[in-house]
Amino acid sequence: MTKLILGIETSCDETAAALVDCDGNIHANQISSQISEHQHHGGVVPEIAARAHIDRIRGVISAAMDEAGAKNSDLRAVAATGGPGLIGGVVVGTVTAKAIAAARDLPYYAINHLEGHALTARLTHSVPFPFLLLLVSGGHSQLLAVEGPGQYQLYGATLDDAAGEAFDKSAKVMGLPMPGGPNIEHLASQGDASRFDLPRPMIKKPGCTMSFSGLKTAVIQAWEHCGKAASEAPHLAASLQQAVADCLVNRSRNAMRQFRSDYNNETLDIVVSGGVAANQTIRKGLETLAKDEGFCFHAPPIALCTDNAVMIAWAAAEYINAGLAASPRDFAPRPRWPLAEMSSSPWSAAS
Ligand code: KG4
Ligand code: ZN
Fold first, then answer.
1. CATH superfamily of 128-302
2. DSSP 8-state symbol, 210
3. Nearest C-alpha to atom 7 of ligand 1 is from which residue?
């Protein structure tokens, strides 16, 4: 059997394990969502998440090995999210990966969760370096030039909330269950996006910096102003979704122009990744923009946009394929780990 990389993801509320080979074939993809345990708290509770990861991790890894029909001797490396994320969960994944690597004498890779999202499109679409990345998740919103594993140039990030937070916090205010983003999208499909005049923060400014907290505040005010009428909810959801899409398209346009002048590429590629990339209105807006600006648009399939362990195993495959070193076994998990601070020696960057 081809030698496999075991990937482990535990940075938020999904306990996930996957097996991938260095050619990008996915042999197993197991995800155990904890959403039911957090739902009645209205958000992810870090302590509950950490305990749930401990309870589930063993079963999830066994299920991945069974799915692939793999034995321990089929493994060539073990990778786990080393940050950023909820530190209790990151510790669970990291300790598990280090233990398996030590017991089997395998190389261990501490993967930056954001790098997992960033490199997924190379597994699904073989996108060449360098490419422009819009990473939009529940915790991050940023535009970056991706030059290679560990090589990122930051074009702009959010000053406050992430795009996913704008969806999640607005959904909570409107009484929608978790996860906020997909529920807003579902509701928005029956709404009129022009009904509420919501702001588009930052779009008059040059550059790629984003801001979403004002949008969330405007949604709260609009919801109160309309008397929290259920009949208005689809319209408010649609207006919010359109406002986020417009902001992301506007910032991405500036990033495309900067990327074009920074890299004299024959072909220009933009990748959108992270949970918010699952949103069809946002995808369509970016696709149209890409066409206008002469970029090829790539978005991984939705199941690989939201948190998963395939992306963690694949990021390790990228390091292996590029001949880069494995991580030291004393790698310390990091709650904060910006991609732009990775540079060429990612494991030694200060936390
Ligand atoms: O990447 P991800 O699974 O986890 C993080 O690393 O944060 O992203 C989760 C985020 C949440 O904020 C969720 O509401 C948002 O992605 N999301 C969506 C959609 N699906 C997930 N936002 C808008 N529309 C969606 N369809
Ligand atoms: Zn994520």
1. ATPase, nucleotide binding domain (3.30.420.40)
2. B
3. 138
User: Does residue 22 register a pLDDT over 90?
Assistant: yes
What is the 240 CA–ligand 1 centroid distance (Å)?
A: 15
Residue-wise pLDDT tens digits, 320-350: 999 999 999 999 999 999 998 886 555 554 4
pTM, entire model? 0.92
In contact, 180 and 166? CB cutoff 8 Å: no
Say if CB 13 and CB 178 are below 8 A apart.
no
Q: Which ligand is nearest to the CA of 171?
A: 1
Residue type, 277: A
Which residue minimizes the CA distance to atom 22 of ligand 1?
181
Distance in angstroms (rounded) separating the CA atoms of residues 212 and 144: 18
**Reported CATH class of domain 4-118+304-348:** alpha beta
Q: What is the 3-state secondary structure (H, E, C) of 105-154?
A: CCCEEEEEHHHHHHHHHHHHHCCCCCEEEEEECCCCEEEEEEEECCEEEE
Q: How far is CA 77 from CA 108, 213, 238, 273, 344, in A?
A: 6, 41, 45, 25, 20
Same fold, 4-118+304-348 and 128-302: yes
Q: What is the mean pLDDT of the chain?
A: 94
- Which residues make up the environment of ion ligand 2, defined by Cβ < 5 Å? 137, 307
Say which residues have a Cβ less than 8 Å from residue 50's Cβ, sequence separation at least 6: 86, 88, 89, 91, 92
CB 77 within 8 A of CB 106: yes
Question: Residue 85 C-alpha to ligand 2 middle, in angstroms?
Answer: 9
Query: Do the Cβ atoms of 83 and 113 come closer than 8 Å?
Result: yes
Q: What is the pLDDT of residue 346?
A: 58
In DSSP terms, 48 is beta-bridged to none
Q: For ligand 1, pick from 10, 12, 167 the residue to mutate: most ligand atoms within 8 Å of CB.
A: 167
pLDDT digits (tens, 9 = 90+) for 189-201: 999 999 999 999 9
| Interval between CA 137 and ligand 1 midpoint (Å) | 5
Give nearest CA residue, ligand 1 atom 23. Answer: 181
